[in-house]
Design brief:
The protein is α/β, with parallel strands linked by helices. It has 17 helices and eight strands. It has one domain: TIM Barrel, CATH 3.20.20. Helix 3 runs antiparallel to helix 16. It binds flavin-adenine dinucleotide.
Length: about 400
């Protein structure tokens, strides 16, 4: 019931912002519009067409902190006043050159620097493939030996990641390492575990991400935990269901192999619950970062905390939602003292378009979540006596 309090959920939104959110969610709940909209966005990006303004005042405003870090910091401070912490990300996903990858390192270092100066930003994040070419991650994950040139490139990827993690360690800012498509994930897992081994001794600085829509991740989690006990390092786990389901299923169909993804949403949910139980049972030895907009998953954790007499602000459990989504969870949890962190991407529009396309696709495919958002926004507009057309 806690999530039905819309006054608290949208306390940070003006009437105009809320109205815009209503229209945007209405539009992106339509699969056909999202399909053609994504194609147009990709076309715009490729041919540098000047219709960026259209994105800027609609979907970008809903899901991103701003074009520059200064705009996002204003937002971070606004959320902090309501007890909601943030983590910021220069969300550039496509880089074609080594110099683009170095720019991404510089941006991550910059984010770590300003996160150090405020308790409103307890985490930073990076997407591993923003530091190296996707095809290199793919080859490394496949187990095929890299040639001389590729090995040199791979060493540069590792150096970039080490640079970010050791800087975060120096400034004592936690880092989340995102999970990506399964065909690049083995290389990412190897890096994440190495970073945890190096930096997670006295504290849990580095968090890896585990996607429970994958059939094999319970076993992976169990093995990771056992290795951490044996090698004496702490593990931080960002637990998510997984964002690349359409790509994953298409690829396995194209290759004629069985999909790594659970056969149904129910199977994913079952996996997710087992993983949650597994981690909660071992919470003294690890930390949980729950990245989910699923009310039942969140309630499962808060109920468990209550049952085990843990305070709402228990330091080893974090709840996280994406900026622009599931505010009813974030702001209501924060009002009860839980540790809540919003993910705030920022950057030039052309850089964040792939992220925005994923958000639009997610909102059109997970229809129950979008209709819940729409219901709650309508309810709040009504409470504020604003007529909805
Ligand atoms: C803070 C945060 C960080 C995130 N970081 C990452 C990340 O690093 N990597 C990443 O991949 N994702 C990431 N995500 C996205 C996440 O994986 C989910 O896509 C998204 O949160 C929706 O899942 P849910 O638990 O919120 O909600 P739900 O609505 O309960 O679940 C939707 C999810 O269930 C799964 N699903 C849906 N239909 C089926 C089906 N037919 N069969 C099998 N499974 C199905 C899919 O994973 C889908 O995204 C992050 C999300 C958040 C909130």
């Amino acid at each position: 019931m806690i999530f039905n309090n819309t006054k608290q959920a949208y306390i940070h939104k003006t009437d105009k912002e809320l109205y815009r959110a209503l229209y945007l969610f209405r539009i992106i709940s339509n699969k056909r519009i999202v399909f053609f909209g994504s194609k147009i966005a990709q076309f715009t990006l490729r041919y540098r067409l000047p219709i960026i303004g259209l994105f800027k005042h609609t979907i970008f405003k809903q899901f991103c902190g701003g074009l520059k870090k200064e705009d996002s910091i204003k937002l971070v401070n606004r959320l902090d006043k309501m007890g909601v912490k943030s983590y910021m990300h220069y969300a550039s996903e496509h880089q074609n050159s080594e110099s683009d990858m170095d720019i991404n390192v510089a941006k991550t270092i910059e984010t770590i620097s300003f996160s150090k100066n405020t308790s409103a930003l307890p985490f930073t994040v990076f997407k591993p493939t923003s530091f190296g070419s996707f095809s290199l991650f793919e080859k490394k994950s496949s187990g095929v030996a890299l040639d001389f040139k590729e090995t040199e490139s791979w060493n540069r990827v590792i150096k970039r990641i080490q640079k970010c993690c050791s800087y975060a360690n120096k400034l004592n800012v936690r880092i989340l390492i995102d999970a990506e498509e399964s065909w690049v994930q083995d290389a990412i897992d190897e890096i994440s575990e190495d970073m945890m081994k190096t930096f997670n001794h006295k504290k849990t600085l580095i968090f890896t991400t585990v996607q429970l829509y994958r059939k094999d991740r319970l076993k992976y989690l169990d093995n990771l935990f056992k290795r951490s006990v044996k090698k004496k390092f702490k593990i931080g786990i960002k637990l998510v269901r997984g964002a690349y389901i359409e790509k994953e299923n298409k690829r396995s169909l194209d290759l004629g192999v069985s999909s790594k993804i659970c056969n149904s949403k129910t199977a994913t949910d079952k996996n997710f619950n087992i993983a949650l139980d597994y981690i909660l049972k071992r919470i003294k030895e690890c930390e949980l970062f729950l990245g989910s907009h699923n009310e039942k998953s969140v309630i499962k954790v808060t109920d468990w905390m209550k049952k085990n007499n843990l305070p709402n602000n228990y330091s080893k459990i974090w709840f996280s939602q994406l900026y622009g989504m599931a505010d009813h969870i974030s702001f209501n949890l924060a009002s009860k003292g839980y540790q809540v962190v919003k993910y705030i991407p920022y950057g030039p529009i052309k850089e964040v378009i792939p992220y925005l396309i994923r958000r639009a696709q997610e909102n059109s495919s997970v229809s129950s979540q979008t209709s819940r958002e729409l219901y709650l926004i309508r309810k709040e507009l009504k409470r504020r006596s604003i007529k909805v057309i």
